[in-house]
Amino acid sequence: MYIELLGRKILSLVTPYKRVFFSIQDEEFERVITLPSIKSASYFISSGDILYIDSIDDLEKLCWIDYDLVNSRDKHNIRHNEDFLKFKDIVKSSLSKNDSFKIVVGSKIIMSNVLHLACSIIHEDTISSNNGGSIVPLNNKLEATI
């Protein structure tokens, strides 16, 4: 327990950001969905990384979402809860059509000591390109080539 707390403290000192958010955009959305992240869980995420969800049960225990902030009843955090509920609906809808739901991290944007990881949804019927690599669905499996 103490080692885990020490590890979190060290990572919070190393990460220069006050907060980290996943900003997910797709052509279906009216606006960008912003999900708060745990700094230590998202510290090692970089451009081109794929976040993979294959079960509705996983939505309540993703290691990279800050559920304390999502579930907070503070009036300043209501939008996080609304965005998370919208995200859950999108994932559930996608999982009803496909075997999995995938998000690719595109870039990191730093605004006033807050890190936003700009992400987009990978649709099974599309091919996207990131950093010179390509993500190609092949036999219902996702392969990344660089």
UniProtKB/TrEMBL annotation:
It comes from the Bacteria. This is Uncharacterized protein.
